[in-house]
Write a structure and sequence with these properties.
5-stranded mixed β-barrel, alpha+beta, 27% strand, flat
């Protein structure tokens, strides 16, 4: 076989794979948007005490068997953000949204927006918004900001 034919076949296979991934991604994006709308429609604001938070596998999270059965088998071994909370007299483990997992303070009472056993949003105790702690700046970043401040330039963010 000529090398030109081999290259054309490889390019054709790559194009077909990219097209399949594109349409599969569009389908999954629509499904995710529908699920997000459903979560937003059923959310409630609840006061709860956060006992512990960590990323763990669903099968190791001590969830009821009925919840573990609903999770796809492939997703049972993936580490997901889980938060152990006390709602009233009841202690339970809840799933947490990946974007707000870092905002959840441990051993503090918070007001959270939940939908079922899924934590969607976090607020402070008295309605104040909890902000993510900024990372400490490294030596080079601090030195660069000082040099720019002395020169009168605007600092780079």
């Amino acid at each position: 076989m000529k090398p030109l034919y081999i290259v054309l076949i490889v390019v054709a296979v790559i194009i077909v794979l990219l097209a399949i991934l594109y349409f599969l991604g569009k389908k999954l994006e629509k499904k995710q948007a529908e699920q997000k709308m459903l979560l937003e429609a059923n959310k409630q604001t609840v006061s709860l005490l956060v006992i512990d938070k960590k990323k763990m596998k669903v099968k190791d999270a001590q969830l009821p068997a009925s919840i573990i059965e609903q999770v796809p088998k492939a997703a049972r071994n993936i580490k997901t953000p889980m938060v152990k909370v006390k709602i009233g007299p009841q202690i339970m483990t809840m799933f947490c949204d990946e974007q707000i997992f870092d905002l959840v303070p441990v051993k503090k009472e918070i007001k959270a927006e939940i939908s079922g056993i899924y934590i969607i949003g976090v607020k402070g105790v008295h309605g104040t918004v909890i902000k993510k702690d900024e990372k400490k700046k490294g030596f080079f970043k601090r030195a660069m900001e000082k040099a720019q401040e002395k020169a009168g330039a605007k600092p780079i963010k």
